[in-house]
Amino acid sequence: MSQLISIVWFRQDLRLTDNPALSAAAAQGRVVPVFIWSPEEEGAWTPGSASRWWLHQSLRSLAESLARLGSRLVLRRGSALPTLLELVRQTGAQAVYWNRRYEPAIVQRDATVKEQLRAAGLHVESYNASLLFEPWQIRNKQDRPFQVYTPFWNACRSFAPLPDKPLPAPLRLPAPDGLNDLPSLSLDALQLEPTIDWAAAMRRYWQPGEEGATRRLEAFLAQPIDAYDTARDRPDLDGTSSLSPHLHFGEISPRTIWHRICPVGRATEVRGGREVYLKELVWREFAYHLLYHFPHTTDQPLRSEYAAFPYRTDPAGLRAWQRGQTGYPMVDAGMRQLWQLGWMHNRVRMIVASFLVKHQLLPWQAGARWFWDTLVDADLASNTLGWQWVAGCGADAAPYFRIFNPVSQGEKFDPQGDYVRRWVPELARLPTKYLHKPWEAPACVLSDAGVRLGETYPAPIVDHATARERALAALATLSKSAT
DNA sequence: TGAAATGTTGGGGCG
DNA sequence: ACGCCCCAACATTTC
User: Fold this and answer.
1) Do A155 and A261 fall within a single domain?
2) A323 and A278 within one domain
3) In terms of residue numbers, what domain contains A360?
4) Do A348 and A376 sit in the same domain of this protein?
5) Which residues have CB under 8 Å from A151's CB, separation 6+?
6) Any long-range contacts for A409-414 (C-beta under 8 Å, 24+ apart)?
7) A477 shares its domain with A334
8) Which positions on strand B lie below 7 Å from a protein C-beta?
9) How far is CA A224 from the centre of its chain?
10) Is A193 inside a domain boundary?
């Protein structure tokens, strides 16, 4: 057995299967797996409460998986570079391996870490574990990054080479002598979990970790995939894959999903629900592509003229939105699902985001920040893309005048009202006809359902038609000042 | 991966 | 039989 000792630095790749850094290290000799909690190095985007809850569970799962292979996950907290150098001293490691991340602050940090470790004489390699295509691989004919989705998708679907087949998990993970005596924090010492236990519903709904991710994928694939095209838009059904948090933490690889959906490997060969799902996966790739090439967009609009957009300041309005108390059942249902599950159906994300930005004229950055704190799948690339898309200031964005009507969206995508009844139980007894617009219900209908508007459920905080006119007027000032 | 306003068409009631 | 109007259904335009 070789005596070469390698450190595998786990980050957002909390899995054993299709983990190139882990496989490379295991092929070299003995492995020291480590996770370093260094939130201060994430710039302005330190993980939010829901993300930290998930991370705690996922680390526990990873530690158990490593223990089954005769290894041990070492936990540390602090700045990455000095922590890694200390580990090198303590283990005699000659190599450090990790899988890449793409957030602006992390790209910078990792470049420094790599340079300094190499300067210290270590062998250092990083790998792609979380994307089908590297953000710099996909270029348009002018050799520039894409800013529109459809041509990006066309470039990805015909890109050669195809995404690699997933690597198998290592069968054994030889530990260096003394791995068990290496100083490590306990998982609890990282203080990732909330001090008040608000995660009960999340525990019921999610199974963080690689095994839970695999089960979620298999459950999704057990459904008729041809229905995905329309079922994915229905928040009252289980039509989506719900893999987003597992993907964010790297508990499952997009390559694994790609090759399960598309066994021949070529996206040009699939149609129907399979193709639609691959396109959703590639939206995630597009988000990383944009974040990598336009790193300022986490806080600034991609279309710079939107920096002058006349957003309002309204702390009470923002709070009503956050708490699901806007008086629009579809919006409130979404915000309460988010609060309880740390997740919201994507169709409803578009509705609530449109409401915040267009009906309330509040800045998309405030919405992005709230999602960042409350989503278990909070992902800087996807979150940034989604909010800029809704606000109209991003890549391939919805035109600003595309304003969702929360009533007609509800009637269209939650036709029996199951979704609203589940998340806004105080309206559950209203007839479906009025469920998405309780202010139009006759007084006797409201009282029969036990609803008193303004008391048991809020009256709408803005009138739709008025808010729509106000949003269009705000857009007009923008295009005037831009010329 | 909008919604609302406006325009067009065609069936049917009715004088 | 015919013109007129209404209106639903659909298409197009506008925001």
Assistant:
1) yes
2) no
3) 304-482
4) yes
5) A140
6) A409/A330, A409/A347, A409/A351, A410/A329, A410/A330, A410/A351, A410/A435, A410/A436, A411/A436, A413/A233, A413/A234, A413/A235, A413/A236, A413/A347, A414/A234, A414/A235, A414/A236, A414/A330, A414/A333
7) yes
8) 1-4
9) 25
10) no
List the CATH number of the domain containing A364: 1.10.579.10
Six token digits for residue A372: 């960042």
The nt closest to A412 (CA vs C1′) is B2
Same domain, A352 and A463: yes
Strand B: protein residues, Cβ closer than 7 A: A 149, 233, 280, 283, 346-347, 350, 396, 398-399, 401-405, 408-409, 412, 464-465, 468
What distance lies between CA A445 and its chain's CA centroid? Answer: 41
Which residues are CB-neighbours of A219 under 8 A, at least 6 positions away?
Answer: none
pLDDT tens by residue, A94-125: 999 999 999 999 999 999 999 999 999 999 99
Domain boundary among A128, A156, A174: A128
Query: Residue A238 gets which letter from DSSP?
Result: T
Residue/partner pairs of A217-226 with CB below 8 Å, 24 or more apart? A217/A241, A217/A243, A217/A252, A217/A256, A217/A257, A217/A260, A221/A260, A221/A261, A224/A273, A225/A261, A225/A272, A225/A273, A225/A274, A225/A277, A226/A272, A226/A273
Question: How many Å apart are CA A164 and CA A265, to the nearest integer?
Answer: 9
Summarised one tens digit per residue, pLDDT across range A393-411 is 998 887 888 899 999 999 9
Residue A176 lies in a domain: no
Q: Which nucleotide is nearest to A354 (CA to C1')?
A: B2
CATH of the domain at A72: 3.40.50.620
Nearest residue to C14, CA vs C1'?
Answer: A401
Name the residue among A329, A327, A320, A321 with its Cα closest to residue A419.
A329
Residues A229 and A154 placed together within one structural domain of the fold: yes
Asked if the structure places residue A171 within a domain, the reply is: no
Q: Which residues contact A128 (CB under 8 A, 6 or more apart)?
A: A20, A99, A100, A134
A125: three-class secondary structure by DSSP: strand
Distance in angstroms, CA of A463 to C1' of C5? 36
| Residue at A182 is within a domain | no
pLDDT 10s digits, A328-370: 999 999 999 999 999 999 999 999 999 999 999 999 999 999 9
Q: Are residues A64 and A158 in the same domain?
A: no
